[in-house]
Design brief:
Blueprint lengths: L1 E4 L1 E4 L2 E9 L14 H30 L1 H14 L2 H14 L3 H17 L4 H22 L12 E5 L4 H6 L5 E6 L7 H9 L3 E3 L13 E5 L4 E4 L3 H24 L13 E6 L5 H6 L4 E6 L1 H5 L7 H14 L4 E5 L27 H6 L1 H14 L5 E5 L5 H20 L8 E6 L2 H5 L1 H4 L5 E4 L1 H9 L17 H16 L3 E4 L10 H7 L3 E4 L4 H10 L2 H15 L1
Parallel strand pairs: 3-4, 4-5, 5-6, 9-10, 9-16, 10-11, 11-12, 12-13, 13-14, 14-15, 15-16
Antiparallel strand pairs: 1-8, 2-6, 3-7, 7-8
Helix pairs in contact: 1-2, 1-5, 2-5, 3-4, 4-5, 11-13, 13-14, 19-21
Bound molecules: phosphoenolpyruvate (PEP) and magnesium ion.
The site of phosphoenolpyruvate (PEP) has 10 residues, from β10 and α17.
Amino acid sequence: MNIYEGKSVFHGIAIGRISVYKKGEQQVKRVKIKDAEAEIARFEESKAQAVKQLQGLYDKALCEVGEANAAIFEVHQMMMEDDGYNDSIKNMIRTQEINAEYAVASTGDNFAQIFASMDDDYMKERAADVRDISERIITVLSGTDSAMAAAKEPSIIVAEDLAPSETVQLDKDMVLSFVTVHGSLNSHTAILARTMAIPALVGTPLPLDETTDGKLGIVDGTSGKIYVDPDEQTLTEMKIKQQKELERKELLQTLKGRENVTLDGKKVMLYANIGNIKDLATVLQNDAGGIGLFRSEFIYLEKDSYPTEEEQFQIYKQAAETMAGKRVIIRTLDIGADKQCSYFEMEQEENPALGCRAIRICLTRPEIFKTQLRALFRASAYGKIAIMYPMITSVKEVKRIQEIVALVKEELTEQGIDFGEPEQGIMIETPAAVMVSDELAKEVDFFSIGTNDLTQYTLAIDRQNTKLDEFYDAHHPAILRMISMVVEHAHRAGIWAGICGELGADQTLTQEFLAMGVDELSVSPGSILPLRKIVLETNVEEYKAGKENVNRTET
Ligand code: PEP
Ligand code: MG
C-alpha cells in the first residue's frame, strides 16, 4: 500500500479503480501554407465550432452546478473572441505563412506566459484558461477528439492537472473522485469540484504510471489522502467510514431543496457560518440559503502582514459569485480578544475581551477599515454581499461607521471604480446594543445576534475560560429575553433579525426562536438540514399555545 497526501478540495470517501488520465497530446507541427486567407477562414470556422462547444458546456454546467460556476465557459467564449488573441493568430498566419494550428498554439503560449508573469494571482490563473481555449481550437482544427475517454467503470481519475472544461466534461456517474498532482485550491476546477460534491484532492505528489493506473484506490477527502493498493484493514475501516457518510448524505438528500417553512406557514432563513472561502463547498452541499456570517478576520489571521485590498476583493468576489445571488454577510474584521494578529502591533491589555477589539480597532485605525470596506463595496458589484459590523455598543459608533463608509464610496466614485450597494447590518453581541436596539434598528438594514459574546458580556463570564463552563449558561433567561427584545425592536423598525452565535444551532431552542419571530439562523453548514427538519415539523402557533398551557398550570 502507498499513501500520498494532497490538499483536500472536497471531503468524502471514494473507493474504486484508479484511472490515470492523460490529455489528448496535441502534436502541433509547423507547416508552410500557400493560401493565408483560406487558412484564416479555416481558423474562423474551427473557432466558431469551439465557441459552440463551449456554449454546450456552459448549458451543461448551468444545469449541474449553477450560473456562477458555469460562468467560466462564458469567459472562455469571450477569450476566444478577444481581438488581441485573434489578431495575433491571423497576423502569424499571414506574415509567416504558417498553418492555423501552429499560430494558435504559439499565440496561446505567448498569452499564457504573459498572464503567468503577472503579480496578481487571479490574472496568473488565467494562463491555464488561455491554454485551455487554444487546445480546444487546435483539437477542432486537427479533427482529433480531446474528450475524456469514457471510463468503463466508475473510477478515481488521477491526472497531472485538469482544466475547468475537462472537469465539467467528467461523466459524474463514472467519476468517483479526482486527484491531481498540480492545481490550486482557488482554481475554477477546484470550485467546480466542490460544487459537484466530488471527493477531490489537488497538489498530490503521486506517480502517474503503472504503479497507480488500474490499481485499487481510496480517496479520503477529509484527511486529504489517497491510498493506492490499500491493505485489508484500511479497506475495511474506510468502507465503514464511507457507509456513515452515505447514511448522512441520504438524510441530507431528502431535505435538500425544501423551503424552511413551518407547518403553519412561517418562513425562516437558514444560513451558514464560514471562516474561509474553502467552506463554500459545504455551504452549497448543505443547501444553505446564504452565508449569515463570514468571519473575515481569518483572512487576516492566516497572513503575516495586512491582506491587500485586491486580495480581499478576490476572496469576497469569489464568495459572492459562488453563492450566485444568495445573500453573503461578511463581518468586518473582529481581531482582538482571543484572535490576535501580531502585525497589528496591539498593546498588551489587562482584559483583551473588554479591550480594543473588532469595530474599536476599525474606528481607531480607519486606514485598515477603509481597505476592507473598499474591497467589500467593490466585490458587492458581483453578488448579494451584505456587510456586518461587530461589537457595536452605541448609535454613535454606527454614525462614525456611516461617515467612513461615505468617504470610501466617494473615493471609489472619484476613482471611477465600480461598486455595489451592499446591505449593512450590525451584530448585537453586547448588552448595551440590546438595550438600545430600538435606536440602532433605525440606522441599519438588519441585526444578527452574536450569542457567544452576548452571553459572555451579559453573564460576566470569559468565554475562553473552560473552568467556568458550568456557569456559562447560554439558556439563561436574561439571554432569551434579550433575543426576544432585539427581534421585537427590529420588526418594529421594519428590519430582520437573526442569530449567528452558536446558540442558533441549538436544536432544543429552535421552536422557541421560531415563536419569538427570529428571521434567520446562521449556523455551521452541517447544522442546516437538521434545523430544517425541525422547522418543517413545527407548528409555531401550537407550540406557543402549548407553552401558555404549561405556564397556566404552573401558576
Ligand atoms: C458571537 O459572538 O456570537 C459571534 C458569532 O461572533 P464570534 O464568535 O466570532 O465572536
Ligand atoms: Mg462575537
